[in-house]
TrEMBL record:
Domain ABC transmembrane type-1: 85-276
Listed CDD domains: TM_PBP2
Gene3D superfamilies, per database record: MetI-like
InterPro entries noted in UniProt: MetI-like, MetI-like_sf
GO process terms (BP): transmembrane transport
Subcellular localization(s) per the UniProt record: Cell membrane
Protein name (record): Carbohydrate ABC transporter membrane protein 2 (CUT1 family)
Mode of membrane association: Multi-pass membrane protein
Length: 291
């Protein structure tokens, strides 16, 4: 007598009630969260193509009735957009590269180089993460202006280099690497530079990419410090340039231009974020492993 093995539970079709519970418990909250995040971006993008009469109205509509690119042309006329955009690119590229390099070297030293008081130094770095950046605004402004850094690229970049976030994330990841990798390289006569470039960095690419991407987003969107240290329009970055647009006209009349300028600020970094988002997931997962 042969018996038929019971069908695995995973292959059985869900009942309508169970399917409804799965959808309502998982997908509906996810959909609501996505809408909450995306709707302001969608509204901003569509509003950048609306004339002022469609933005300031008692009967607002999502889609523009008479789409126009006048807001973008006005932004290009009233703001040295090409120069401001290049300023943001330069400040972001140089600042992010220096921050990532400092984070890599510091994290490597804290993990793989033997010297006294390493844990105390790391504890001091963690303390800096708990200090709001606004606290250092006045001391940084006094120091940079005394050194002649007002309205300069290095004056924008230099104070932001003292951040411990990348060091913390990379240190936690480096501590999860198998010691045998470094020991084998050391037996082959590799020094610290070769061990870093030939062993540590190749296997840590997702985490390094995560630190780089988060740093790029922060540098691109930084507003408060460039606003304080820069006064010349030709040295402004994109977020600060939006303030210049708001000051040209009264705030209500500049809504359309501000929407267009905001789109110009967000779209480049959004494209980079979407292209590299898988590195964020992989990097944060590796860096979160408890040792």
């Amino acid at each position: 007598m042969t018996t038929t093995a019971p069908e695995p539970r995973s292959s059985r079709a869900l009942s309508p009630r169970a399917l409804f519970e799965v959808v309502t418990s998982a997908y509906v909250p996810l959909l609501v969260a996505v809408l909450v995040v995306l709707f302001p971006l969608l509204w901003m993008t569509l509003s950048s193509f609306k004339p002022l009469t469609e933005i300031i109205t008692q009967t607002p509509a999502l889609l523009p009735a008479a789409p126009t690119t006048e807001n973008y042309s006005t932004v290009a006329e009233r703001l040295p957009f090409g120069r401001v955009f290049l300023n943001s690119v330069l400040v972001t590229a140089v600042g992010a590269a220096l921050k990532v390099a400092l984070a890599v070297f510091t994290a490597y030293g804290l993990v793989f180089v033997r010297f006294p008081f390493k844990n105390w130094i790391f504890a001091g770095l963690l303390v800096t993460l708990m200090v709001p950046p606004q606290v250092a605004l006045l001391p940084n402004y006094t120091l940079i202006t005394a050194l002649g850094g007002a309205d300069t690229y290095w004056g924008i970049i230099l104070p932001g280099l003292g951040t411990a976030f990348g060091t913390f994330l990379l240190r936690q990841h480096f501590r999860t690497l198998p010691p045998s990798l470094l020991e084998a390289a050391e037996l082959d006569g590799a020094g610290h530079w070769r061990r870093l470039t030939r062993v540590v960095l190749p296997v840590s690419a997702p985490t390094v990419a995560t630190v780089a991407l988060i740093t790029i987003v922060y540098e691109w969107n930084d507003y408060l410090w460039p606003l304080v240290i820069i006064s010349k329009p030709e040295m402004m970055t994109l977020p600060v340039g939006l303030t210049l647009l708001a000051n040209v006209d009264n705030r209500a009349a500049a809504y359309g231009q501000l929407m267009a300028g905001s789109v110009a600020v967000i779209v480049p970094v959004l494209i980079v974020f979407i292209a590299l988002q898988r590195h964020i997931i992989a990097g944060l997962t590796q860096g979160a492993v408890k040792d």
